[in-house]
Design goal:
Layout (H helix, E strand, L loop, with lengths): L1 E4 L5 H10 L4 E4 L7 H5 L3 E2 L3 H5 L4 E4 L4 H9 L13 E4 L5 H13 L3 E4 L2 E2 L2 H6 L2 E6 L2 H6 L1 H7 E8 L3 H29 L4 H9 L12 H6 L8 H17 L5 H18 L7 H6 L3
Parallel strand pairs: 1-2, 1-4, 2-3, 4-5, 5-6, 8-9
Antiparallel strand pairs: 7-8
């Protein structure tokens, strides 16, 4: 039996792919309604994180931030007190490396194995089982859950010891945030000097300077429909984790810190629940 805690935009779809692959699954989420589709497909509901953990040998968590992970692990009916000795906790949440290493140590104290295994990808890749797992921890532990990850993703990239998976995820999201902001500013500039937005988009997206993922944001920018695939508030949170980690390692990131504050301002202006590509709307002041 596999456990899954955290059924938001990403977690619900990842759990669904585990079910589709024929796995028995017990799930828990703070809001039970988000589990309804999974329960209809055969998942078992657990009333608490601990009750979910007590039934499984492998537990996945996909939660919003370090505080949410910590609460689910150590709070009232936390899952760390429910997991059996020798079981494996796989945290797919985007957190900071120091936090992942701390969770690995807390798990080890209880005889529990731990992998930090955040994913690259958003709503649509999660639905299609096309996520990329970046993993830190024991290679033997990774081999044990490789079939699960293949059901949820298209690639597994082993990074090294605990904390290295989370480290790589922050590198990836740093590039995503900066690229989206720079692209949005370029499109806005083109419009301001008299070019048509669609023409600017098609020209940039067909050229060598544009990251491939931006092709998936074209229709959002054209239609002004920023229904969330990766909410802006989550990107702002990830940029804060980047800044925190850079400070811990005495690394200067001037471009990253400017970008972080741009997303923070957009969040303050009411864009937090929209897709992070709504940074274009914020930069063009169209709300």
């Amino acid at each position: 039996m596999i456990g899954f805690i955290g059924l938001g935009i990403m977690g619900s779809r990842m759990a669904g792919n585990l079910l589709n692959a024929g796995n028995e699954l017990v799930v828990h989420n703070r809001t039970k309604e988000k589990a309804d589709d999974l329960l209809d497909k055969g998942a078992v509901w657990a009333d608490s994180a601990r009750k979910a953990a007590e039934q499984v040998d492998v537990l996945y968590t996909m939660l919003a931030n370090p505080a949410a992970v910590e609460d689910a692990a150590f709070g009232e009916d936390g899952f760390l007190e429910g997991l059996k000795e020798g079981s494996l906790w796989v945290d797919c949440s985007t957190v900071n490396p120091a936090f992942s290493r701390k969770m690995a140590e807390e798990a080890k104290k209880r005889g529990i194995r731990f992998l930090d295994a955040p994913v690259a990808g958003s709503k649509i890749p999660a639905e299609k089982g096309e996520l990329v797992f970046v993993v830190g921890g024991s290679q033997e532990d990774l081999e044990e859950v490789e079939s699960h990850m293949k059901a949820m993703g298209k690639a597994i990239q082993y990074q090294g010891e605990n904390g290295k998976g989370t480290s790589m995820k922050l590198v990836i999201n740093l590039m995503l945030a900066q690229t989206m902001a720079a692209f949005s500013e370029a499109v806005s500039f083109g419009e301001s000097i008299g070019l048509e937005k669609e023409t600017v988009l098609e020209t940039l997206l067909g050229g060598p300077t544009t990251a491939p993922f931006l092709n998936g944001k074209k229709e959002k920018l054209l239609a002004g429909d920023y229904s969330p695939e990766f909410p802006l508030e989550h990107m702002q949170k990830d940029m804060q984790l980047v800044a925190q980690t850079a400070f811990e390692h005495e690394t200067a990131l001037p471009i990253a810190n400017t970008t972080k504050e741009i997303y923070a301002l957009a969040k303050q202006q009411g864009y937090k629940d929209q897709d992070f590509s709504a940074i274009y709307e914020f930069l063009t002041n169209k709300k």
